[in-house]
TrEMBL record:
Single GO term (MF): methyltransferase activity
GO biological process, one term: rRNA methylation
Presence of the UniProt keyword Transmembrane in the record: no
Pfam families (alphabetical): Cons_hypoth95 (PF03602)
PANTHER family cross-referenced by the UniProt entry: METHYLTRANSFERASE (PTHR43542:SF1)
The organism's place on the tree of life at top rank: Bacteria
UniProt KW Hydrolase keyword: no
Alphabetical list of InterPro entries matching this protein: RNA_MeTrfase_RsmD (IPR004398), SAM-dependent_MTases_sf (IPR029063)
The name this protein goes by in its record: RNA methyltransferase, RsmD family
Keywords: Methyltransferase, Transferase
Length: 186
């Protein structure tokens, strides 16, 4: 079992074990990609475009929860995780119950509930890491979710991890080994 570590913040160095593989979905976010996401978020903070202590970090397809834990460690007001797999969502509930009421874990299908979010923070960052098998048949649905999130007034940025470069107009893409990070900052 692989060990994932928090990179910085009040829980720097904390380790979490990867959850059991669910139907072969084991594409955990590489450390360099995670660092890039949070470096970009840090840049938004420095530019005065984001106040983490008043913002929510939302992780769709949360898997191991490492992105959410990194967000908690860095001081986001609220961290919201969505994971449909039973065993993984139960593991996430146990892990995040230690961090208080500002962490919420939902066992819901992102494709059905992305437009029904109840997150009152003044600004939101979204991270999507759908199972890589979804990119064959659900790439357009993932784009639809991203576009919807970006249409919301409170969304500051959307980050999507994928095995392919989707080539979406209006988004920037960077490659990290076998992984791509596609994002748009408003």
């Amino acid at each position: 079992m692989k060990i994932l570590k928090v990179q910085t913040g009040k829980f720097k160095g904390k380790s979490i074990e990867t959850p059991p593989s669910v139907a072969g979905n084991t594409n955990f976010t590489p450390a360099i990609l995670k660092k890039s996401v949070f470096d970009m978020i840090g840049s938004l903070v420095l530019k005065g475009r984001l106040i983490q202590e008043e913002s929510a970090f939302v992780d769709f397809f949360a898997g191991s929860g490492q992105m959410g834990l990194e967000a908690v460690s860095r001081g986001f007001a609220r961290v919201v995780l969505y994971e449909l797999a039973w065993e993984r969502s139960d593991n996430l509930r146990k892990l995040f119950s230690k961090f208080g009421d500002n962490c919420q874990v939902y066992r819901k299908d992102v494709f059905r509930f992305y437009d029904k979010l109840d997150i009152p923070e003044i600004s939101r960052i979204f991270f999507l890491d759908p199972p890589y098998s979804f990119w064959d048949k659900k790439a357009e649905k993932i784009r639809t979710i991203s576009d919807f999130l970006l249409s919301e007034e409170t969304t500051v940025a959307v980050f999507i991890q994928s095995p392919v470069n989707p080539g979406w107009p209006g988004f920037e893409t960077r490659k990290f080994g076998k992984n791509f990070l596609t994002f748009r900052v408003k």
